[in-house]
Write a structure and sequence with these properties.
CATH class: Alpha Beta
Order of helices and strands: EHEHEHEHE
Number of strands: 5
Radius of gyration: 13 Å
Largest sheet: 5 strands, parallel
Distance between the termini: 22 Å
CATH architecture: 3-Layer(aba) Sandwich
CATH superfamily: HUPs
Oligomer: single chain
Number of helices: 4
Number of domains: 1
Strand order of the largest sheet: 3-2-1-4-5
Helix content: 40-55%
Length: 126
């Protein structure tokens, strides 16, 4: 079965894009691996973010596995994609253009699979 690794920086970006991402997974017959990476010790926001994907997956009948990691964003995305044997990475861009370009470029340079970046202002659902 196809697997899609999805990253989200927090609850708001997750809510903005979860419908679109869940529909992509449903159309492709794929599972979602939801990944949140934190630099701090507070896991509350990360768990809230991951649970948004879990709930949307339940409603769409799409299996969602959640992963919470700490540390470097780019290396954790690449490692998680390898560990979970995913076929596609979907990332959302952030309002901070410099950070968004750095992260998405870094992931695209190191990934061995396709990477899709959803623009920050994108809010359409299928």
């Amino acid at each position: 079965m196809m697997k899609i690794l999805v990253t989200a920086a927090g609850p708001k970006p997750a809510k903005d894009k979860v419908g679109y991402i869940t529909n992509i997974a449903k159309i492709l017959g794929a599972e979602i691996v939801a990944l949140h990476i934190s630099k701090g010790d507070d896991q509350t926001q990360g768990q809230e973010t991951l649970n948004i994907f879990v709930e949307a997956g339940k409603q769409a009948n799409v299996n969602v596995t959640k992963i919470f990691k700490k540390g470097d964003i780019i290396s954790n995305i690449i490692e998680s994609a390898d560990e979970e044997s995913v076929n596609l990475i979907i990332m959302g861009a952030t309002p901070d253009k410099t950070a968004a370009e750095w992260i998405s470029t870094g992931v695209m340079e190191k990934a061995k699979i396709p990477v899709v970046v959803i623009p920050y202002e994108f809010r359409k659902t299928l």
